[in-house]
Amino acid sequence: xxxxxxxxAIPKTMRAxxxxxxxDLRVETVPVPRIRSDELLVKVAAxxxxxxxxxxxxxxxxxxxxIFGHETAGTITQVGAQxxxxxxxxxxxxxxxxPCLNCHACRHHAFAQCAQYKRTGITAGFEPAGGGYAEYVxxxxxxxxxxxxxxxxxSFLEGxxxxxxxxxxxxxxxxxxxxxxxVLVIGQGPVGLMFTRLLALRGLNVVASDLLPARLKLAKxxxxxxxxxxxxxxxxxxxxxxxxxxxxxAVIVTVPSDAAVHQAQESARGGGQVLLFAHTRxxxxxxxxxxxxxxxxxxxxxxxxxxxxxxxxxxxxxFGRSLDVRxxxxxxxxxxxxxxxxxxxxxxxxxxxxxxxxxxxxxxD
Length: 365
Fold this sequence. Notes:
eight-stranded mixed sheet; Quinone Oxidoreductase, Chain A, domain 1; 2 domains; Rossmann fold; about 375 residues; about 25% helix; globular
């Protein structure tokens, strides 16, 4: 490969995992994206497997072809001629959604409803869809404010975790909580564990629930004061004892389970809150006791995607390791085994948590 000024030449083609339809992922050769004068080209080192992409792949909810993958970190390999403040060789984390900050939705701090935010600003080809499941991605001009430089001591894996950490931080900020309140986090997968840790850092008393004993043990390490199995017959009685017969001040549902939503609504105190974080698949309905929302004033709220204004805080938590995301990363797959990574993330094994697809082996550096 020809080198110019010590920088490896950019190839014309690359490997990418193409979504060709429901449950149909193929490793193919595609052109390396060509950037404009106000854009970046980034060589991807690590990309996390996100449940939202899993749903699109497994249920075929968007038309093919696409290249998914939006929890992405890598190295800048090309800088548009008009850009300043970026250098070839810099290690960066990427955010694929960036709001305009000026529209009606943004003025109401509802960034995920902003028209620009709904556009995807990172692509590896075809309809922009994140592009991380490829060797290179193009970062469009409007997504450049979402580029975060990774400190020397931190890994690409940590950089790629900024986006999911941001989403959890945003969700917590939607809750009205006071120090010392008792919060139930249903589900202790990678997202649930991040909720547990961030709530504990704020002085909340966290009760973690999960069906897997190994995850409950890990939840204690992440700051949970108590742990429970949600299928215990004594769940309700134990919950009332933990909350001095009030019920939980807030309940966070991190799994797409209707049973978990019902349990959350029942175990929240009057005037408490139930936050849905995992119910992202459209067209799914369930029955709820709406009098609990009206008469008992139990707020039912949702939270989706990231809050651009929290990027610096997310970076501080991750790179400073007060939230040490390395503890939730359990598996790494090469790009050619992306389908295997998707399958494991969709049906977790007892010892699996956050799944990553890495470039050329180890992406720890």
